Amino acid sequence: MPMPIRFVPAIVAFVAGAACASSPAPDFTLSDTHGKPVKLSDYRGKYVVLEWTNPECPFVRKHYNSGNMQGLQKEWVARDVVWLAVDSTRQSSYEYKTPRQLGEWMSAEDAAPTAALVDGTSATGRAYGAKTTPHMFVVDPSGNVIYSGAIDDRRTSNPADAKAANNYVRAALIEALAGKPVSVAGTTPYGCSVKY
Amino acid sequence: MASLALASSIVVAASLAKTEHVQAELVSERTALIPGKPITVALRLKMADGWHTYWRNPGDSGLPTTIAWKLPEGVGVGALQWPAPRALPAGPLVNYGYEGEVLLLTGLTVPRDATIGATYKLAAHADWLVCKEVCIPEGADLDVELPVAERSDPYPQWGSAIAAARAALPTPLQGWRVNARGDGSKVAVSLTPPDNAADPGALRFFPDEEGRIEPSGKQLQERDSNGSYVLTLPAANQLAPDFKRVAGVVTASKGFIEDGERVAAVTIDAPLVGTVVAGAKPSVTSTPVIDLSPPANAVPDSQISFVVAVLLAFVGGVMLNLMPCVFPVLSLKALALAEGHADARVQRLQGIAFAAGIVATFLALAGLLLVLRGAGEQLGWGFQLQSPTVVVGLAILFFALALNLSGVFEFTALVPSAAAEWEAGNPYADAVLSGILAVIIASPCTAPFMGAALGFAFSQSAFVALAVFLALGLGMALPYALFAWFPGWRRVLPKPGAWMERLKQVLAFPLYATVAWLIWVLGAQLDNDAVIRLLVTLVIIAFGLWSWRIYRGGTGRSWAAAAAVALVAAGIVAWPLLRGGEPDARPAVASDAAGPWHAFTPTAVSDLREGGRPVFVDFTAAWCVTCQVNKRMVLNDPQIRDAFASHGVELVRADWTRRDPVITRALAALGRQGVPVYALYRPGKEPLLLPEVLRKRTVLDALATLGPAQTVTLN
Fold first, then answer.
1. At the N or C end, where does chain B have fewer CB atoms within 10 A?
2. pTM over 0.80, yes/no
């Protein structure tokens, strides 16, 4: 009879794991900065990072001015991770960027996402419940969100903090690519509000 | 007295930092430091209108203000003491913070061995994030110099303000029992009052920590059978680990009474019993709608649940029957029922068939819209009438129907005999067709209720969109079905008789009026040439139908030939209009961008808003009857024009008479799929969406939220 008891923790862990098993990432099709449609589900089989962005936001600029975001993009795109930057600023906001403006900003920043996407109706932002810029999501190859939240643990707008911080996205990708469960799967994001 | 004079003369004014949006300074409650005694100092932040800074838990976004002290040796510093925050909506998100002015307090202790007569410089570096739509991180090095003295007085300018702020700091709730229980994705906080406690009014909980309670989630307040006030709070979607205590500030609209004093905010800290799982994603499904209208068409919460949307759509469908542009068809249908068959069963089935026609058309429209949306078409509700082809076709159809009602020709004689038999033999098919017709005419009349439901449907899955459309169709069909089903209700209809012919003729006039309106719409979409082309077409059709009637009356075949020639000629004249194709890209349309109104461009609103002035946008279309009524009765009213002018409101008219993807997207951004939509963008505040049926009072109330009117010099 001791045998089943030994299995109890494993079962509990399994059930708990299933319960908070990552939620499916809502699919979307958005135009990139060249007007080309990009569909999330076309990237099934790869890890996808979703980065909610808004060039007007000082917290976004913190990570771009410090080179932190570009560095992450290059680091992970090189390892076959798809990186999609999404701008959900509503079209009527004066922070709204047309695809071209967003593209120009990305080039000026030497950014290297797989694609930068304009979500002028904010529909995709709403579907993900994206709250802040930046707000980061990591989607696994089967289309489930395995990390959602802040980019790192330094909740400031100071560019100097970006490098020193513990980067949750990097940590999640390292664990996931090594086949391990993501230990910090959710944090509270910080930054400017998404301009719904 | 002497000491006050002395102290005041020694004190150096606190250094003041001014940024574009914030005035910051360090201020002291007392005029001097007393060795061994505590003193309260404050970081005073005065925000520009509409800007806010954040509480220790900033809510969905933002950052708390921080203070790093640089103090003389031996001065002790306590924790930052935060006044109770306010919930500040940012679109669908909610932040916790302060608007206007805030005093963030810190208690300092003066060392016992401080030398009397010395001057201490209390310095700090403060960082804050100040946001409106835009967020700006700001900071300042601030200081205040105070003498060390044996006694002190209240600082003249700030003493009483700081003392009041200190007294108002939330402190633990006295005399009440507080329990917190986790239940699934909800946390129920129950506050049990002592005997004879007064009602605290509306409560709101502000969690100390992030990742506990979803900031934008609805906090439900109930009173249970024990008399406890129970706040049901939604757990955070991004639930932080180790949720063991429910700690935070509770504000009460009527206040808690403690020692005879009214206390507006208290702190609670209760162990959490039970377990909590992460809550739903925040409902960021709709734009902020602040509806000034009476509850009839108010959307009380920015979160429309599926059920509410379907209900709204249903009621909207029923209300469509009352819309002026449905009237002709409604009348025709009522007439048909009065003429009706003796067999109640046939009538019932006809009623059902008519309802089925309506519902099927709505579903077909929804399906079509979904297909078009999927294809990336920037189309919205009412799009049928954005096409000149449809307008011309409807004008011809209604004109012919009107001539029929006027008695110019008999309808049965018009169609080939086979089709006539088919129609006569199939009253149900007939009824289905009239149902379809009813919907086609009704679509441009976006009744109150419909805007929000449609906006909801289009941001949702195909299933939800179809459900909403189904509800719209059922709502519109309901009166007819009831009418046909309950013969008793039909008794209110007059008995058939000679009046019927006259009534039929009278009913022609609403149809003529509809034709006149459609011609005007066409003029707005295309040009004068198109209008004369359509009018000539109608004249030829009138001649043809008249000829046809003479032929049917038994006169020579030449009249039949005349009728045929006339119909062919009408087809030829109308062909350029019916052939369709997109109207050219010349800027439309209803000549409305004249006078004080700016034309709508993608940047018009943001450009004007940047000027710091309020902007009112009228989303309208020539084919939208409600829009035209609102424009003539309200927006063009001298009183309203004056009110716009005296508030310095910039006026923008977005004309959606023809397809315009920019306006379609702008409407979608507001959560709407149809016109009319009236949006008032206010500096530093949420945009206000006005109800679809405007009244002068509503517009004036909305303008009143801008603050007092100013005299604007016009040059």
1. C
2. no
